[in-house]
Design a protein that fits this description.
The chain has 454 residues and is mostly helical. 61% of the residues lie in helices and 4% in strands.
């Protein structure tokens, strides 16, 4: 590749240290697509004949078939996917293959390949996010009438529909999908033709290449084009948020499947046992996902650290962009896929949930609202119900079983209908505000999302 300038071959240690073919081989499809489009621009510029371009395209496609079939032999000494393909192309068709790199650098070549790769991955991730949302909706629909305690500070707070809890994650994942879509827009700009740093004196039709590769625009600054990895950072940040949301859901599921909660049961197909304790059924998918989130965070920090100190334009440090990107893409895609499968076979233990949500303490705020509706300022109402809770604890008596005289002693605003506040169905039906978990609202949101994701 640079034998004209150097008199010695690279040391074997250098070859091993600097190679990237062990991981960037996965760019082969996009490298071939880019080269086919580049050959069209070379033909239009009169730099290769139609016959030469036909040879190039046919041979590139043949190489692609062999790579896909696992029959292609990658060579470490050729460093990367770009040189492996170009070298083999030249070996097969001679000078026509050697002309392919005219007016092109590996700098703009790899910038193109990674954009093409991530554009396709964004589409796949978006589809996986949608399937994950659909899986959450399906569980929510199956157990639409189930009510569970909602928690703040991991303490029982107020009752919510189980479906409402899952719909919160549907909302999170929808924001994730929006970030992926936005990222795709910014990376969808064609850099080929920028050369190593300053373009080339051999001017090719970049707009034609962009059209052939389905890019809506071309980069406008050659230095930025070859050194820009903002789009990769942006995607890693978006994937870190996806992983965050999956990790939070994992924590919920780990708690819900524990003996202490017992709200849900996972299928045997998505759990594991213990090598020592025969009774164990472990939520390993959720635990692994929670653990893998750290890797996804680390990949984002790794790439930011690589980029933060390098001068313009391309530097070899930037080879370190691919492994973090590949790892985060693979990790998040795998987590989304297995989670959708696991949720599809998850069951809710309705009796256990009903027992948990029967706790009258969950309706303490409803009691405060009762006083507000009877003319008591909220801060005063909050204090009064706090005293009622303290009385309940001291008497070891549920709030719902305190005597009416206990309540009227705390405030004359209490009347006999105070005990209607402990009717869970009535309490849930009263939560009619936008975004609140009334049965009508939950049903409406399930229907809305089902239509939106159809």
């Amino acid at each position: 590749m640079w034998q004209g300038r150097f008199q010695q071959k690279p040391a074997e240690l250098l070859q091993s240290y600097s190679e990237s073919i062990s991981f960037d081989w996965r760019l082969w499809k996009y490298d071939i697509l880019g080269s086919i489009a580049h050959s069209a621009a070379l033909e239009k510029a009169g730099l290769i004949s139609n016959e030469e371009r036909t040879q190039i395209v046919a041979s590139l496609k043949e190489i692609g078939y062999e790579i896909e079939a696992g029959k292609f032999q990658f060579k470490q000494e050729l460093e990367d996917i770009h040189m492996n393909i170009e070298s083999e192309l030249t070996r097969r068709i001679g000078d026509a293959g050697a002309k392919l790199h005219t007016a092109r650098s590996r700098n703009d070549q790899v910038a193109l390949d990674i954009r093409l790769y991530l554009r396709a991955e964004c589409d796949e991730i978006s589809e996986l996010l949608k399937k994950m949302q659909q899986a959450l909706l399906e569980v929510g629909e199956r157990f639409q009438s189930v009510i569970i305690p909602g928690y703040t500070h991991l303490q029982r707070a107020q009752p919510v529909y189980f479906a409402h809890h899952l719909l919160a994650y549907v909302e999170m994942l929808n924001r994730d999908a929006g970030r992926i879509t936005d990222c795709r827009k910014r990376l969808n700009v064609m850099p080929l033709g920028s050369g190593a740093i300053a373009g080339s004196t051999i001017v090719l039709d970049r707009e034609m290449v962009a059209k052939l590769l389905d890019f809506p625009a071309v980069t406008q600054n050659s230095m930025d084009a070859v050194s820009d990895r903002d789009f990769a950072v942006e995607l890693l940040a978006a994937l870190a948020l996806v992983a965050t949301h999956l990790s939070r859901l994992s924590e919920d599921i780990i708690l819900w499947t524990s003996s202490e909660f017992g709200f849900v049961t996972l299928s045997d197909a998505y759990t594991t046992g213990s090598s020592l304790m025969p009774q164990k059924k472990n939520p390993d998918v959720a635990e692994l996902t929670r653990g893998k989130t750290g890797r996804v965070f680390g990949n984002l920090i790794a790439l930011l650290t690589v980029l933060k100190g390098i001068p313009m334009t391309y530097n070899r440090d930037m080879q370190e962009d691919k492994e973090p990107v590949f790892d985060s893409v693979d990790t998040v895609k795998a987590a989304l896929a297995i989670y959708a499968g696991m949720l599809g076979e998850m069951n809710v233990n309705e009796t256990v949930c009903a027992e948990a949500v029967a706790d009258p303490m969950l309706l303490a705020t409803d009691l405060a609202d009762y006083l507000v509706n009877h003319g008591v300022p909220f801060r005063k109402a909050h204090e009064i119900i706090g005293k009622a809770v303290a009385l309940s604890v001291s008497k070891q008596c549920p709030l719902s079983q305190l005597a009416l005289t206990d309540y009227t002693a705390l405030s004359p605003a209490f009347e006999a209908d105070i005990f209607e506040c402990f009717n869970l169905s009535t309490a849930m039906a009263a939560r009619k505000g936008i975004g609140a978990p009334s049965p009508e609202n939950v049903a409406s949101q399930l229907a809305r999302w089902k239509l939106a994701l159809a």
